[in-house]
Q: What sequence folds into this?
């Protein structure tokens, strides 16, 4: 009969807890930080740990932050060879008539893909997004369908794109988690284009405009992505910051002013980098224990760590971490090396329990006739002894 087996991780192995797939439980929050934004998502890209989420999966108006999706579609078209940075686009009446933030494209202009990247990334040009949408899909409506489909393929389940600019529309919605995922995808997949999102200014048709992303060059590490504002979305930001070896992405919205947006961004960055510390979790293949094997050619199998990156924990929590090895005992043969056969339950103060997979450190084949016969005899003997004990009671 198999049962769940638990034992505390020994002191020698306590520093070797696997972090594969590790993340803070939903809604986890470290004491001492209370963001003002009603919806927020913060993720450490270096370790993959979600540091904070509040209303992160609620589809909300993204305003100009959704221009990141338009940029992504353009990046993909360049990288798959449909166009180059030098490909020129025409400016339609519809694009030219766009209000709000503009690149100030004229009907006679023939901007290149690179011009439009900068016009969107730096200037947040609504006119530039329509030019890109029409150049990629013929119409903005067709582009919206393509962009929504692409978002779904990327796992952005709470995103529906209705236009290329983020102009208010009842069906144009994105969650803060989706915006964080999109930012991460751009940073990791298209690093060659990411610097354009940090340019301080761009000049087109003799008009120089500043990048709207706050804190660029302020010394806190924020180096890109995209602001947004409409009356429905409030003052919003999808940003990324890097300090040392660590990088975070975050998305928030619903604030009441540019000042609040800037203050919120700085507070998030300071909290994420100062209140968490990176903990080394051991080496690949490190043995965490052994588990008994049922009907196998070997009696036990080692439980080992797979790839073991660092994780983040609250700065004051390391001494109070507790870890327990959990697996179904005994493990039935056959077992292939690398199979997930258990997990380590890690109790981190203020973040709750995190589960970390454990792998079989060796293959164990099924035992031969002698092993099965011995197991059957032991099982029969156990039944006999049990009945005898019952009779005595």
A:
């Amino acid at each position: 009969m198999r049962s769940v087996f638990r034992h505390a991780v020994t002191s020698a192995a306590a520093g070797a807890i696997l972090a594969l797939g590790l993340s803070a439980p939903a809604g986890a929050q470290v004491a001492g930080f209370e963001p003002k934004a009603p919806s927020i998502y913060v993720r450490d890209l270096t370790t993959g740990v979600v540091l904070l989420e509040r209303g992160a999966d609620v589809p909300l108006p993204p305003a100009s932050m959704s221009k990141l999706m338009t940029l992504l579609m353009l990046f993909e078209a360049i990288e798959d060879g449909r166009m180059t940075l030098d490909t020129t686009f025409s400016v339609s009446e519809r694009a030219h008539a766009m209000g709000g933030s503009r690149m100030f494209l004229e009907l006679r202009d023939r901007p290149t893909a690179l011009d439009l990247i900068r016009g969107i990334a730096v200037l947040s040009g609504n006119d530039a997004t329509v030019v890109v949408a029409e150049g990629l899909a013929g119409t903005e409506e067709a582009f919206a369908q393509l962009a929504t489909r692409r978002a779904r393929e990327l796992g952005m389940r709470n995103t529906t794109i209705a236009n290329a600019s983020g102009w208010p529309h009842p069906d144009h919605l994105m969650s803060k988690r989706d915006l964080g995922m999109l930012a991460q995808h751009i940073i990791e997949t298209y690093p060659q284009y990411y610097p354009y999102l940090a340019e301080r200014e761009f000049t087109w048709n003799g008009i120089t405009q500043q990048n709207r992303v706050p804190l660029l060059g302020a010394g806190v590490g924020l180096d890109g992505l995209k602001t947004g504002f409409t009356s429905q979305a409030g003052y919003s930001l999808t940003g990324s910051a890097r300090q040392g070896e660590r990088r975070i992405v975050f998305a928030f919205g619903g604030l009441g002013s540019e000042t609040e947006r800037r203050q919120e961004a700085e507070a998030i960055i300071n909290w994420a980098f100062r209140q968490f510390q990176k903990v080394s979790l051991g080496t690949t293949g490190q043995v965490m224990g052994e588990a008994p094997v049922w009907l196998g050619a070997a009696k036990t199998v080692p439980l080992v760590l797979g790839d073991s990156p660092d994780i983040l924990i609250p700065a004051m929590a390391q001494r109070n971490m507790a870890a327990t090895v959990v697996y179904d005992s005994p493990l039935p043969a056959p077992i292939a090396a690398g199979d997930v056969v258990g997990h380590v339950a890690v109790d981190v103060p203020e973040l709750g329990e995190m589960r970390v997979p454990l792998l079989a450190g060796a293959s164990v084949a099924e035992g031969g006739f002698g092993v099965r016969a011995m197991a059957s005899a032991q099982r029969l003997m156990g039944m006999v002894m049990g009945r005898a004990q019952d009779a005595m009671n």
